[in-house]
Design a protein that fits this description.
This protein is α+β, with helices and mostly antiparallel strands and 469 residues long. Among the domains are: 148 residues, no CATH class; 144 residues, no CATH class. Helix content is 30%, strand content 16%. Strands 1, 2, 3, 4, 5, 6, 7, 8 and 11 form a nine-stranded mixed β-sheet that branches. It has a two-stranded antiparallel sheet with strand order 9-10. Strand 1 and strand 2 form a beta hairpin. The longest helix is centred in the middle third of the chain and has 23 residues. The two termini are 35 Å apart. The relative contact order is 0.10.
Length: 469
């Protein structure tokens, strides 16, 4: 005799179906774009003025677009004295910056900077900056004890389109002026994000850095500049100028998105973080070689790409090494499998990665040899202070989302596990005896992440990963 489902059974099936299917778009996401006919548009302190009124709209992240062609006749703050610079269709290959002549390392190139009148056609993307009054006047994001070296305070993007995109469209990557791709927020697979309990997790550390969704949404609501290496033109009001802090930031943001906040509470941070991944992916698609190992500088750019690809269901984006086999990411270049002197199988590959192993400066792989044979303390010093501690959050977030296969470099995950579990008490004694280098200070030891929030998340969830969705 066929059994009849009870109301409880029907409810269970309904909940199961809702869990298995992608989330429906949030209210209003499928509405037509709202356009305004105006002669100017502003975003985060930058105002662009047109020669005549044009249709203006906003992407789902709040970034503006203008239906073109259009001519920009004024920008405020005014670009002058090689400050408050704007760059149209930022190049990928120069390694230079066109925003402020005070960019260190000789990175400023005035030929990249444009001033009104600026003719924009559909597909063009204009990045306009606000300069700091004085270099090093602002604390470095996530490292407030340091002063930021970049002269760029903030950056805003204006995109020229042929027609209004859907209301829930992300802004194209600021590198996507040749082959722009449209990504829609309605396609985000929000159901992939777990709701891990927050109980027992610290959300503020002694330096005053707060781990709230609103705080981190603000960090990712404006474009991050990532094509001038060493962060010499980072938008320093909100963007870290050093890769170690980029790695910390992307780990923290993605871990916050895995906690038991409501979908509505997560939405703004989710949109901003996915937009960052879209920007980075567009940079690679435009021909940028990646963010190679050089101490801590190359950290943090791979995970936002993989994360955005997973949430958008874009297989190419979530597996960047398949599309670009030669792409360079600091975390991958600095981790490898080898028989380490401590007995470990996953080891640190040096300041610039294994390809520098023949350098007489000792910048390459070294952990496969005993400390007595090390020619420099550069690798070990950076391993303990500028790389490993910043990798823990993103490695844990990737494991929580079961993204190891998409990441496609197992040595990274095994190395982070080693860093967080290996007792280095005897190892630091051997290093000091062999070379005289002392790593006994608490801040130089293994088994820790830079941020207590990340440490607590690791302790609570590394061995309690949620099921794959």
């Amino acid at each position: 005799m066929q059994k009849t489902l009870t109301s409880t059974g029907l409810l269970t099936l309904a909940l199961l179906a809702a869990w298995l299917l992608p989330c429906r778009p949030a209210a209003g996401q499928e509405k037509p774009a709202e356009l305004t006919l105006t002669d100017r548009v502003a975003q985060h302190g930058v105002t662009w003025t047109f020669s005549e009124r044009a249709k203006v709209g906003r992407f789902v992240t709040g970034d503006p677009y203008v239906v073109g062609p259009v001519t920009i006749v004024a920008i405020a703050p005014k670009p002058e004295n090689e400050r408050n610079g704007s760059v149209l269709n930022i190049p990928m290959a120069s390694g230079k910056s066109g925003f402020d002549s005070r960019s260190p390392g000789g990175r400023y190139d005035p030929k990249l900077s444009v001033k009104p009148p600026i003719a924009m056609k559909p597909g063009d993307i204009l990045l306009s900056s606000i300069s700091v009054e004085k270099v090093r006047e602002l604390p470095a994001p996530l490292r407030p004890a340091d002063k930021a070296m970049s002269p760029v305070r903030s950056v805003s993007a204006l995109t020229c389109v042929a027609e209004a995109p859907p209301a829930d469209a992300f802004r194209p990557s600021y590198a996507d002026y040749k082959e722009p791709k449209t990504y829609l927020a309605r396609n985000l697979r929000r159901n992939l994000l777990p709701s891990l309990p927050r109980a027992g997790i610290p959300f503020e550390i002694e330096t005053g850095i707060k781990f709230t969704l609103d705080e981190w949404a603000k960090r990712f609501e404006r474009p991050w500049l990532d094509v001038c290496f060493f962060g010499f033109d980072a938008a320093i009001e909100y963007q870290p100028h050093y890769g170690r802090e980029v790695g910390r930031a992307v780990g923290i943001a993605s871990l916050l998105l895995c906690l038991d906040f409501t979908p509505e509470e997560k939405e703004k941070l989710l949109l901003g973080f996915v937009q960052y991944g879209i920007d980075l992916w567009g940079i690679l698609r435009a021909g940028y070689p990646g963010w190679p190992a050089h101490g801590g500088h190359g950290t943090g750019r791979k995970w936002p790409i993989v994360f955005a690809g997973l949430l958008l269901g874009d297989e190419e984006m979530q597996t960047p090494k398949k599309r670009f086999p030669n792409v360079k990411f600091g975390e991958d270049m600095q981790t490898m499998y080898a028989k380490g002197w401590t007995g470990a199988k996953a080891v640190y590959a040096g300041h610039v990665g294994a390809q520098g192993s023949k350098s007489d400066k000792g910048w390459g792989a070294y952990e496969h040899t005993p400390p007595a044979e090390w020619v420099s303390n550069l690798g070990e010093a950076y391993r303990r202070t500028c790389t490993s501690l910043a990798w823990v959050g993103q490695a844990l977030a990737a494991r929580i989302l079961h993204a190891e296969k998409a990441w496609d470099h197992d040595a990274f995950f095994d190395y982070v596990d080693r860093w967080m579990t290996e007792d280095d008490t005897e190892h630091i004694k051997i290093i000091k005896q062999a070379k005289g280098w002392d790593y006994s200070m608490s801040w130089a030891r293994q088994r820790q992440a830079w941020d207590p929030f990340v440490e607590a998340m690791w302790a609570k969830y590394r061995q309690r990963l949620p099921p794959s969705r």
